[in-house]
Write a structure and sequence with these properties.
Blueprint: H1 2-10, E1 20-24, E2 30-34, E3 41-43, E4 48-49, H2 52-62, E5 68-71, H3 90-107, H4 114-120, E6 126-127, H5 129-138, H6 140-143, H7 151-169, E7 177-178, H8 179-185, E8 197-199, E9 202-204, E10 209-212, E11 215-220, E12 223-226, E13 229-230, E14 241-242, H9 245-263
Antiparallel strand pairs: 1-2, 3-4, 3-5, 6-7, 8-9, 10-11, 11-12, 13-14
Helix pairs in contact: 3-7, 5-7, 7-8
């Protein structure tokens, strides 16, 4: 009882911030200490703390700025090997095609492709990827083509799958669909070929993965798609930097050149 009274007397004029309490030291001096409660938070330094107070205490001791990233324990950061490029697989491409065909069968009588060409192309009677995306955007509610809960990822995948769909029917490889190519692409009786990737005399199925130094490459719609990290031969702990667009294009071109050589 005596110690309790002394604690209350010593701490009577001592104010402690949120998450801390005043206690008396062995010398009878007031000191603020973090409450022994566990409300785990993740700091901006990637370290988990039992509560906000422990985080601010560590920031004070280390003289660094640390803020709360989110509640709960910090999530483990993926290693370089776990980082994968965002790609449109054959199944994603074919699903988009099926959705558009279903919409056409429901909304358009005697489909001849002209209505799309007149409404969305820039007057050249050909659809490029941007014009095809505009067609999807205009009919977004009816088509309901959603690949991801994340808006940015969903828009990127939709764009990638449009490119894959155009490549599917683009006979003259100009990345535009003529009226005939557009009709062929969306004819229900047309069955797209399952393109594969090749590397060093081996053929890989859609979704196959390979490693190119520190970068992961994925086979998607017949093309190798890779992450874009510059691989540094430094000590452990050194972070890889992103490649420039020119470096990335050159490396992927080299990989796909190997594929062409293997298929020929």
């Amino acid at each position: 009882i005596l110690f309790t009274v002394m604690d209350e007397s010593v701490c009577a004029r001592t104010f402690c911030g949120a998450g801390r309490e005043c206690v008396s030291t062995d010398r009878g001096e007031p000191v603020c200490r973090c409450l022994q409660v566990k409300h785990w938070v993740c700091g901006s330094n990637g370290k988990s703390y039992r509560n906000h107070c422990e985080l601010h205490r560590d920031a004070c001791i280390t003289q660094t700025k640390i803020h709360v990233e989110h509640r709960g324990h910090c999530l483990e950061k993926p290693t370089k090997a776990d980082v994968s490029p965002i790609v449109c697989f054959l199944s994603d491409r074919d699903w988009m095609r099926e959705r558009v065909i279903q919409w056409i069968q429901k909304e358009v009588k005697d489909f001849d492709g002209v209505f799309v060409s007149q409404a969305y192309d820039d007057g050249d009677s050909q659809l490029d990827s941007n014009e095809f995306l505009r067609f999807l955007k205009h009919n977004e509610t009816a088509l309901n083509i959603t690949y991801s809960d994340t808006l940015q990822t969903n828009l990127l995948l939709r764009s990638l799958c449009v490119d894959a769909l155009i490549e599917l029917s683009d006979e003259n490889a100009d990345w535009k669909l003529s009226l005939t190519e557009f009709i062929n692409c969306l004819t229900p009786t047309y069955h797209p070929t399952e393109r594969k990737c090749a590397l060093e005399d081996e053929v890989f199925e859609d979704g196959a993965e390979t490693q190119m130094e520190c970068n992961k490459c994925v086979c998607a719609c017949g093309n190798w798609v890779c992450t874009a990290l510059t691989c540094n031969d430094t000590d452990e702990g050194g972070e890889d930097e992103e490649m420039t667009e020119e470096e990335w294009s050159r490396r992927v071109a080299e990989l796909n050149a190997l594929q062409v050589d293997s298929l020929s």
